[in-house]
């Protein structure tokens, strides 16, 4: 694939105000995401795999193929690179509301209702111990939607799940504005979710 580069944000750093503040977005994108990107490139160089034919999601899907000495680094930096890339894309200014179409129907089937889904996602993500992510994901083996959490930067791809919508609850994602109030951050975040992107992701993978 060649060297990975920090993907530009699809909006300005202040676009998600007041829910996610500009300073947090600048640091999160230019420092944290940049560090995952650099760490991924350094790890690939170390194992002579910068020209690996698969995009990072393919590598994360089967870490057993990665040399053992680099597996944790690929999991961490590769997951961090990809999780953040997808995270930025799944938010927008004036987001929020509800999904429509087939995704809305499937959420009703597997979670009961959109409100039930939101509750499960919110509570499950708030209660992650330490750093991690909450996810709405697609389980291709069982052709169904699922909620899951992952620790640190582990990607849903590594758990054989296709990420549709993820929420970063590392303290770096909210501490400047919300301090220790993770619940306030998670509840606010629903106002910036870009449901049309999540619907597109779902329609690409669900037959
Ligand atoms: Mn982060």
Structural commentary:
With 207 residues, this protein is mainly alpha-helical. The protein folds into two domains: 22-89, Helix Hairpins, CATH 1.10.287; 101-205, Iron/manganese superoxide dismutase, C-terminal domain (minor pseudopilin epsh fold), CATH 3.55.40.20. Helix content is 48%, strand content 11%. The chain is built from eight helices and three strands; from the N terminus they run H-H-H-H-H-E-E-E-H-H-H. The chain has helices at residues 22-46, 56-60, 68-89, 101-111, 114-126, 175-178, 182-189, 195-205; strands at residues 132-139, 144-151, 162-168. It has a three-stranded antiparallel beta sheet with strand order 2-1-3. Helix 1 runs antiparallel to helix 3. The radius of gyration is 17 Å and the shape is globular. The mean pLDDT is 97. Manganese (III) ion (MN3) binds next to helix 1.
Task: Provide tags for this entry.
Helix Hairpins, 207 residues, 2 domains, mainly alpha, 8 helices, three-stranded antiparallel sheet, binds manganese (III) ion
Describe the structure concisely for a colleague.
The chain is mainly α and 207 residues long.
Number of β-strand runs? 3
CATH topology of the largest domain: minor pseudopilin epsh fold
CATH homologous superfamily of the largest domain - what is it?
Iron/manganese superoxide dismutase, C-terminal domain
CATH class of the largest domain: Alpha Beta
Which ligands occur here?
manganese (III) ion
